[in-house]
Amino acid sequence: MPEKVIIIGSGPAAWAAAIYSARAALKPLVLEGAISEENRLAGTLPLGQLALTTEVENYPGFPCGDLTAYLASSLDEKKRQFMAPHNKEGVSGPELMELMRQQAVNFGTRVITEGVVDVDFSAKPFRLTATDGNTYESHAVIVATGARANYLGLPSEEQYKNRGVSACAVCDGALPRFRNKPLAVIGGGDSAVEEADYLTKFASVVYLVHRRHELRASKIMSQRAEANPKIEILWNRGLAEVLGSDKDGVTGVRLASTVGEPDLQKDVTGVFLAIGHTPNTAFLKGKLALTEKKYLKWTTPSRTYTSIEGVFAAGDVADDYYRQAVTAAGSGCMAALDAERWLAAKGL
Ligand code: NAP
Question: Which atom number of ligand 1 is nearest to the Cα of residue 190?
Fold first, then answer.
């Protein structure tokens, strides 16, 4: 028997879609992604990008306060063992994601910890092939696979990945090699500021390297960076080369000037890339219409329809503009309602 709806992904869009479709008695199946080294390196482990962040201060409903008892009563103790201790103020990204997943499960969502490597949308029911080789059939599909962090593509960056080069401060920042040492963060958006701010917990100094003379980050985040005595902003600079050795991993960076100044070299033991994201749509190439930037194309204004009837898209995989947890969750809800109405119209 085909499923009524399969949801691919496990960020806020996916769990919101699951909560709504479970409550609409569609018995959703979520393919949340595989736990693999490949996904760890790519930043695409289950629970998405929020699971790689720290405090979430802008998701409505979690004002600062002690959420310890709430978390204890919401999440299985076994899950909590593997999560960082609650910091007593607000909610963290990993906590928020576990809460959303739990809420979906509470309403009967079934979850499989595998990703999707191929889709056949050419016939109905649709057919999905998972990372473990199993195939799944479904009348409707909601794609909510999010996006992943970008790298610059420098050979030296590749050479020192996992040996001082990272795109996730929260995942790697506490490693001994970064303690009390100078570090560099590349980028000027909210992610770059957030990473730099987080890394000041461990580093002696964090160089925030930005290619222009104005941060892209929101005002409040920019002010935070400028007020942090451990953050030194290096304006009009780009990463030209990661310096290092086989023995020590990263030992420094060579920074090119974007305004014609000579190169600048800084000793650092870590380089954190925070230069934007790429949507996780590689497995959909040729199967669904994509935008120029390879995001899934929403084909109808204010709807989550894609180029194939019965396939819906939600969250960052289709949104290169808002890219917020709350907008992702909102579009996940919309996708579930769109899928529910489409299934009803088809008598499925
Ligand atoms: P972003 O806003 O797109 O910023 C990317 C930054 O990387 C920009 O400063 C950009 O420089 C720089 N960049 C891009 N390509 C580059 C290259 N090849 N070389 C050097 N620099 C490069 O991405 P983001 O910071 O990941 O944020 C994504 C979304 O998530 C945003 O909507 C943001 O508000 C949101 N977010 C929010 C929070 C929060 O509120 N706490 C935290 C993280 C992210 P230019 O400025 O010159 O283009």
Answer: 25
**Catalytic machinery residues:** 168, 171-172
Are the C-beta atoms of residues 169 and 341 closer than 8 Å to each other? Answer: no
Query: Is residue 93 within 6 Å of ligand 1 at its C-beta?
Result: no
Ligand 1 proximity of 28 Cβ (cutoff 6 Å): no
Identify whether 125 is preceded by a cis peptide bond (ω within 30 of 0): yes
Mean pLDDT by 10 residues, the chain (348 residues): 98 98 98 94 90 83 86 88 76 93 98 98 98 98 96 93 87 88 97 94 97 96 95 98 96 98 98 95 97 97 98 97 93 98 97
pTM above 0.85, yes or no: no
Cβ of 264 closer than 6 Å to ligand 1, yes or no, is: no
For residues 183 and 334, what is the distance between their CA atoms, to the nearest angstrom? 41
Among the listed residues 132, 129, 134, 135, the one whose alpha carbon sits nearest the alpha carbon of residue 117: 129
Where are any strands of DSSP class E within the chain? 3-8, 29-31, 55-56, 91-92, 110-112, 116-120, 126-130, 135-143, 147-149, 165-166, 182-186, 205-209, 231-234, 237-245, 249-257, 264-267, 270-273, 277-279, 311-313
